[in-house]
Amino acid sequence: MSTRQSHRATILDVARAAEVSRQTVSNVVNSPHKVAPDTLVRVQAEIDRLGFRPSRAARTLKQERAGAWGLEIDARGAGRLGSVLDAFLVELTLTSSRNDTHILPFAAPDYREPIAAYEEVLASRLADGFILTDTRHDDPRPQWLRDRGIPFAAFGRVWDDPTETAWVDVDGAAGVETAVSHLVDEGYQRVAFLGWPTGSPVGDDRRAGWARAVDRLGVGDEAWQGVAVQELDAATLAARPLVDIVGPGGAIVCASDALAAGVWRAVHERGLRPGLDVGIVGFDDTDAARVLGLTTLRQPLTEITERVLAILLNAQTPPAAGTVLHPELVRRSSSSRTVIPPAR
Amino acid sequence: MSTRQSHRATILDVARAAEVSRQTVSNVVNSPHKVAPDTLVRVQAEIDRLGFRPSRAARTLKQERAGAWGLEIDARGAGRLGSVLDAFLVELTLTSSRNDTHILPFAAPDYREPIAAYEEVLASRLADGFILTDTRHDDPRPQWLRDRGIPFAAFGRVWDDPTETAWVDVDGAAGVETAVSHLVDEGYQRVAFLGWPTGSPVGDDRRAGWARAVDRLGVGDEAWQGVAVQELDAATLAARPLVDIVGPGGAIVCASDALAAGVWRAVHERGLRPGLDVGIVGFDDTDAARVLGLTTLRQPLTEITERVLAILLNAQTPPAAGTVLHPELVRRSSSSRTVIPPAR
DNA sequence: ATGTCTGATTTGAACGTTCATATGAGAGGA
DNA sequence: TCCTCTCATATGAACGTTCAAATCAGACAT
Q: Exposure check for chain A: N or C terminus, fewer CB within 10 A?
């Protein structure tokens, strides 16, 4: 039962087997160009035969870098509705695997006091830097990290510091503008907006996109907007008056799929049909959007993770400016005035 | 700009500051009972003052254990509908933080050939063992790990080996039985089932629960079942004949929320109302269920992660038997024949 | 006074790498 | 022939811990 943990090959085992020194094996792995061609193939053969991989711990110790990046996980757990961040973590893991590095997910015991958890990760030398998500106004993290010279890259703008460029974000305003244009093209004549309470930069950005678009296209009014937290019942409640305002032939764009789901319910309550009678567009392309058939704006997560990781892996040459990517409009039945058959 | 990475305190810094040896500091951290009380407080004060935490890498190297557990992430990425595994990863991270250990998410380049990726993680000494999810028939992983004496614990039964006890699972059959009983209590008279294609052990288990319950309660027929893959359009297509069979006053239980969402659409297509006319119950309590107001069975993820981690952290005393937990029925409007107002 | 035991603390060594430096073997020029 | 240079490979040291063994200081018994 208690079979001794099978002895894994070390660099010395390989060195002995190939009759070279440790350093030569190390060079084969890390600087192949320094090794004579025939030695290279001989050592590489032994590496493959023995299944040798450098011990991450030993390498970390010597090089004083962990080869891993911390990602704070919201301590409120999986109870949040329609978060795109779970998908981000998954995508980030995939991207990391391809870049010979790792993600260290960690949780702050109290999500309102995140710094202590970052401190802890650094003190244990578990990560070389961090990936920030959920950046916000008065976010203490960017400055704290910058002051200490700790590398980081953010998914989401670093809002309070325009000189900070280590971020990748999606142009929410442009995305919403695209959505409004699309709705107008589809024949909707009035476009309202349901967003989050003012103060969330992401939400405010998306709202600004709506305001600009309806102004430009003449399909809306400053007053046609509602506010709700990211919660279904609250969204439904806030959506009702908006549905009454725009009525059949109108549409509502939302700061999130969860809010759009609320609109969807309010539309149904009034005996109207999403799409056919009232257009709805959400944001993030979560499961909720797919099951409701909601048109939505999809963030290019794969590209985001690749760019975030690139910032960290080339930390010596910081980007000249933050990166803004465009979300992609995913058309579904909620923004079509004709029936789209659901099945093939 | 290139401020030298701030020098973090090592055990030697603390030792010098407290005027004791390295080993005494180590004892303060790891075996406080070995240290004289007054020395303890003095050293602890310096530890706190300097913010010392043992370097994980150095500890890993010396102890030959990583203090981390590998979790394979599905390389197909975040595109899957209604996966409960994202939530599992988040919950696991939170539980790990509380137990002074870590989760190492990693991806297999080809998800059909997972072993190589596990091999890689072990060879790099990145993890001491693994947490398996998505256990299935002909799963090569449990045996492979067992043969090598590598600790693991599974979320999901180890189906092919009844002697294996290192798993925690949810009683899907009992959950579905509960759902059927609930539907009968609510006044639905016929209960059909929409599941995944035969061969998925999780799906077969859930189907068995339905078969048992409808047989016992006399509310169904062996023939009243449909099959679809975990995809919305397929589910909608498969749901249509079932809706026609059970009709108003009938109900359909499903192997997942995604399938339930398909039923939900099919019910609407027929001009019927979920809940009021046709009952629907899903499985997993994903966002989709919340947004659609679907009654569903929630897996107790926090308890699952705690037990999974407990198995790994007490690997020397393997559990006597696999652990089966019960899912919790979450009642929403899709299983109520009277209107439940959505808002407060 | 001497020896023995116990508990607290210290010292030496090792975990597996990589960095910096040293050595060795040829090649080429004087 | 000898010196210099270059390229390939080898050696010593160090990263920060913890394990095992050694030392030290008292307490107690003889």
A: N
Residue B49 CA distance to nucleotide D22 C1' (Å): 31
Q: How confident is the model at residue B2 (pLDDT cuts 50, 70, 90)?
A: very low
Distances (CA, A) of A238 to A227, A243, B15: 6, 9, 61
B139 and B153 in a single domain? The answer is yes
Dist CA B240 CA B268 (whole Å) = 10
- For the ranges A269-273, B21-25, B174-178, B338-342, which has the lowest average pLDDT? B338-342
Q: How far apart are CA B193 and CA B203, in angstroms?
A: 11
Q: Do B81 and A290 touch (CB under 8 A)?
A: yes
**Co-location of A230 and A272 in the same domain:** yes
**Chain A touched by B103 (CB under 8 Å):** yes
Distance A130 CA to D18 C1' (A): 29
Interface residue B123 vs chain A (CB under 8 A): yes
Query: Does residue A319 carry a pLDDT above 90?
Result: no
Q: For the segment A293-308, what is each residue's pLDDT rounded down to a tens digit?
A: 999 999 999 999 999 9
B10 strand D contact, CB < 7 Å:
yes
Q: What pLDDT does A4 receive?
A: 35
| Closest CA of chain A from B96, distance in Å | 8
Counting the structural domains of chain B, the total is: 3
Instruction: Give the Cα separation of B57 and B251 in Å (integer).
Output: 56
In a domain, B161, yes or no: yes
Contact B89 A103 (CB under 8 A): no
Q: Which of B150, B120, B58 is nearest to A100 (CA)?
A: B120
Q: Supply the pLDDT for residue B8.
A: 87
Q: What digits encode the pLDDT tens for the residues A110-130?
A: 888 999 999 999 999 999 999
Biggest CA-to-CA distance, chain B: 82
pLDDT tens-place string over residues B142-167: 999 999 999 999 999 999 999 999 99
Residues 137 through 176 of chain A touching chain B, CB cutoff 8 Å: 148-149
Q: What is the CATH number of the domain that holds B177?
A: 3.40.50.2300
- CA–C1' span, B146 to D15, in Å? 34
Give CA–CA dist B215/A285, Å, rounded: 40
Say yes or no: B27 and B75 in one domain. no
Q: Which of B106, B119, B264 sits opposite A97 (nearest CB)?
A: B106
Q: How many CA atoms lie within 13 A of A132 on its CB side?
A: 27
Contact residues, chain B, for A292 at CB < 8 Å: 291-292
| Domain of A23, in residue numbers | 1-40
The CA distance from A87 to A81, in Å, is: 13
Residues A304 and A288 in one domain: no
pLDDT one-digit tens code per residue, A99-114: 999 999 999 888 889 9
Answer whether residue B20 is part of any domain.
Answer: yes
User: What does the mean pLDDT of chain A come to?
Assistant: 92
B102 touches chain A (CB under 8 A): yes
